[in-house]
Specification:
Elements (H helix, E strand, L loop, with lengths): L1 H36 L2 E13 L5 E3 L6 E9 H6 L6 E5 L6 E6 L4 E2 L5 E6 L2 E17 L2 E2 L6 E9 L2 E7 H6 L2 E4 L2 E2 L6 E6 L1 E2 L6 E2 L5 E9 L6
Parallel strand pairs: 1-4, 8-12, 9-13
Antiparallel strand pairs: 1-3, 2-8, 3-7, 4-6, 5-8, 8-11, 10-17, 11-16, 12-15, 14-17
C-alpha cells in the first residue's frame, strides 16, 4: 500500500506537472512563432490635433490647418486594425497667453500598445492667441434682382438690425458689419419681406446665438417714366 501510494504521489507531482509544463511550452512556442511570422509594417495617417484646457477668455487666432501626418510602425496584424481614432495628437493650452507660440509634437502623439510613432509631419507648429471679446455689429442686407424700369429699391430694413459676434479681440475690433445671404427681390412692386441669415466673412469670428434675419425691401418709383 505504501509503495502504491508513493507511485501515485510521484505521478501527481511529476507526470501531471510535466504535462502542464509541456502544454505551456507548446503554447509559448506557438505564440512566439505567430509573432515571429508577423512582419513589421508602417502606415501614414492624418491625425487632427486635439486642443485641451484652453482658457475660457482665450481664442485661437490662426486659421491654418491643425492636423498632422503620423507614420506608425508595428506588427502587420495590428497595423491592419489601426483606426484613426486610435491615434491622438494632444496639446495642452492651459498656459497660453496672447501672442504666438510654437508647439513640439514629439511627445504628444499617442498610439496603441505594441505600436510606435516613427515620424510626425510636421513635428512642430505655431499658433497665435488673442483674448476673446464680444461686440454688437450692424446687419447689412444684400438685395439682388431685376426690377421694372420705373422701380428702384428705396429702403432695406433688417430685423434684428444688429447681431452679436465673438472671436479674437483684434479681429472683432476690425470687423465693420455682418452681411446677409443675397435676397432676390425680383418682381417686388411695393414691399416684401424675406427670411435669411447673417454672417461675418472672417472664419474666426462667430455670430453668437445665430437667428434668422427678416429683410424688408421697400420699392419706389424712380420717376424716369413720369411725364
Amino acid at each position: 500500500m505504501s509503495g502504491f501510494g508513493q507511485g501515485s504521489l510521484f505521478e501527481r507531482i511529476f507526470v501531471h506537472n510535466f504535462l502542464l509544463k509541456l502544454v505551456s511550452l507548446l503554447l509559448a512556442v506557438g505564440l512566439w512563432l505567430a509573432v515571429a511570422r508577423d512582419p513589421i509594417a508602417e502606415v501614414e495617417i492624418n491625425v487632427p490635433i486635439e486642443f485641451q484646457k484652453i482658457p475660457d477668455n482665450m481664442e485661437i487666432d490662426s486659421a491654418d490647418s491643425t492636423a498632422v501626418r503620423v507614420r506608425v510602425r508595428g506588427p502587420e496584424r495590428l497595423i491592419h486594425r489601426l483606426d484613426i481614432a486610435d491615434v491622438h495628437a494632444q496639446v495642452d493650452l492651459s498656459t497660453v497667453r496672447p501672442g504666438q507660440r510654437t508647439f513640439d509634437l514629439t511627445d504628444r502623439v499617442h498610439v496603441p500598445q505594441d505600436l510606435e510613432v516613427v515620424q510626425i509631419i510636421p513635428d512642430q507648429f505655431q499658433l497665435s492667441f488673442d483674448e476673446r471679446v464680444t461686440r454688437k455689429i450692424e446687419v447689412h442686407p444684400r438685395v439682388i434682382g431685376t426690377f421694372a424700369g420705373n422701380l428702384r429699391v428705396a429702403q432695406v430694413l433688417a430685423d434684428p438690425p444688429t447681431v452679436t459676434v465673438t472671436g479674437p479681440r483684434h479681429r472683432v475690433d476690425a470687423v465693420e458689419s455682418a452681411i446677409t445671404d443675397p435676397v432676390d427681390a425680383t418682381g417686388v412692386i411695393t414691399r416684401a419681406a424675406f427670411m435669411t441669415h447673417a454672417y461675418v466673412t472672417d472664419p474666426l469670428i462667430q455670430v453668437a446665438h445665430p437667428t434668422s434675419i427678416r429683410v424688408t425691401v421697400i420699392m419706389e418709383s424712380s420717376g424716369d417714366d413720369e411725364k
